[in-house]
Amino acid sequence: MITNENEFYINEEDLSKDGTLFLPANDLNSIQLWYEDNDYLVNTLGIYSKSIDEEGDTLLTPIHDFPICIYKVLEKNAKGENDNEESFTASDTKQFVMVKYKIAGVQKIDEVAYSRYKTSIMPTNESLNMSSNGGRYDPTHLSNGWTAPTLRKNKTQITALLQRMLDRCTLRAAYDKTGWQYDSVENKLCHITPSHNYYLGKKGYAYVSKAGSREKYISAQIKLILNSPLYALLKCGTISGFTRGLFNVETVSHAMVMYGQAGLGKTTLMQAAMSFFGPYSMRSRGSNVPNAIDGTSTLAGTEFLMSARNNAVVGFNEFDAMVRELTIDKALLFLSGGGRIVKNQSADGGVNMHVWDSLFLATANDQPSKIYPGHSKNEAFSSRLMEMNIDDPVICRPENGKNGFDINEIESVLFENYGHGYDMLMEYLTEEKIKSLNTTFHKTLSEFKANKDIIKSIGKNNIRLLHLFTYMSIGALIMKDLFSEEASTQATQALNLYIKSLSKPDNIRNPKTKAIEVIKQLKHSIVMYPRAFVWDTYAYDRNNHEDLTEREIKEYQRKQAKSFTIDSAQKIGIIKQDRPFENQYDFEGELLLNVNTKNTSVITIGTNSIPVNEIISAIKELDLCFEEKNGIYTKKIITKKTSKKERAYFDNIPSDVLRIKLKPLMDLEIDEDDYSDSENNETINKEIDEISKVAKRENTNKGNKNKEVADIFSDMLSVLDKGKGSDLLNVVDMSKAKRITKEEFSVIFPEAK
Questions:
Q1: Which residue among 1, 181, 213, 500 is buried most deeply as judged by most CB within 10 Å?
Q2: Helix (H) or strand (E) holding 51
Q3: How far apart (Å, rounded) are the C-alpha atoms in residues 454 and 301?
Q4: How confident is the model over 693-738, as pLDDT tens digits?
Q5: d(CA 333, CA 167)
Q6: Contact assessment for residue 675 and residue 610, using Cβ atoms and an 8 Å cutoff
Q7: Which fold would CATH assign to domain 214-501?
Q8: Would you list the domain boundaries of the chain?
Q9: What is the DSSP string of 668-683?
């Protein structure tokens, strides 16, 4: 009779890439006993019948050279040892078995011949099948290489033997769902992945794997965490993704999204974070497990992957590309935990419902929350997003070269050493620790809900974001034991910085101020490089004089427009000014921006480069598109087919161009009411004080030989004196202040002295 002690298990570390176990062929010392009773014996050499000779010795008669053995019965919701087994029938749930068997062929490794063995999980009735059906519907063991006997009597014997094994082997709980599941046999919670021995779903969705040294993996991760608040956030988010399902809280998925222009390391950081449970990338040693999906993935395929990674983390490149292809309802489906009913393609028919509670770790070029502007469900969509600008100067990405930090060295280490974090976390999550974390989770969530400043920042209806913050707090807490106390502190501080930033009206995080900054950058580029554009009507003439008549001003500006147009070399766009300029930033009309002449996502004007996606986001945010339909901007709305004359300006290259409303700068400024509640924010006041200190220091000919620059800082002080500190904070980048002309500053702040 089979017992737990002599059950045969295949150690994953002994398996080859295709899941095969190798044992030296015909080596008596390597023989493994699989099954034995009074009538039969099965070992790794074959299947034998037993008999007793006249002298009482056991005789073994070969039945088949390809051993096969059922060694465990798997039942969904299987009963434990203390349950009434008589009340349990196979009809309650679908029954599966774990089978081990020898497969055909011998493989030579270093001139040594090895026999090959496999294990499979299959439906019970399939395991008793000795017949092939042409390959397509073959039982798993036949399709994997097990050879059935040719003689009918041997088939009958083996079928009877397998039924005997089935009757005598151990009953074991199994799972058709991933994530945290209660094991009714061992009476504890288990985290189930497609790699788990008792998972009944598709093994092809496996994502947990490891390689190399745990110590090297930990060292590389600590260096990344301490060097980058942004990465610290990603890491505590990743860790916490595997705690979903442990706490009694609303089931809702979230997305942590790094957005911004390409080439700044978004994918690198995502892959480094996901090396917690699998390969750093497809190039990692011995890896054949995809570590991320992208925006081109199908809806059905993504749903299968998400359900396979329940209570875990899913990497997603170009998240914004997927969102654009979906309606907002379907995008919400992903971040609500699924639930779409799909037809089951298996032979038994029926339907499946894929559900999950997981974390998207995503990259995007554009800010996802800006893809559905004005839509009634956009708030619900945005409430599930934690968006982080890759170019944020505070919650910053890793700084290569800082204190000897080398990102290339880190990448090299993680190529070879990955996946250890998952095992570390599972070792950490004992029953007692789970209970403690559950208490901490709900205490932290209550504290977040009671924090008026946080609620004011995110909005009363954005409670789901508090769930994500709470999960991340748990991740930061766990980080102390998995990595280091210093790493945990960095993660906690980074999370606090991010939460505070949500109420901070700066150019990075506030959509409107960011949009204004982009448009100002665009206008500044036009002013600095006017010959890069075609001027259809008027262009500002620097020689304008106050004593000129209105008619003379028009004449001068028309001449200037012709002059710029004749000299135009880049031909980046056409400027159609409705009236003469009062100053060089006094735009009013439209700009036709030619983005088709560039095979890039960046528009370069002189020495200035502006991402096209940022321009598009800005004109949407500031309502600088000429048409709008139900609050949704389409390509047709934000672009314009060029006329014959306009195409001539662009050498007949573009078919359509971005059509942007041009308004005076002051028309774009934020109303005082927008930030009246934030004026007393302690952090903001500190930053305003810092600006004041810098301005006072620079406001001297002694401290700054350039008198014009000194005058600018003097004007800044006058703006501060008038109580316009927040305005100055939002508009003036101190790192660029010395490059702003006095004329430019006076246009932005006419109230300056």
A1: 181
A2: strand 46-52
A3: 37
A4: 767 766 665 455 566 667 777 777 777 766 666 556 545 555 445 5
A5: 44
A6: no
A7: Rossmann fold (3.40.50)
A8: 12-174, 214-501, 511-668, 672-748
A9: HSPPGGGGGGGTT-HH
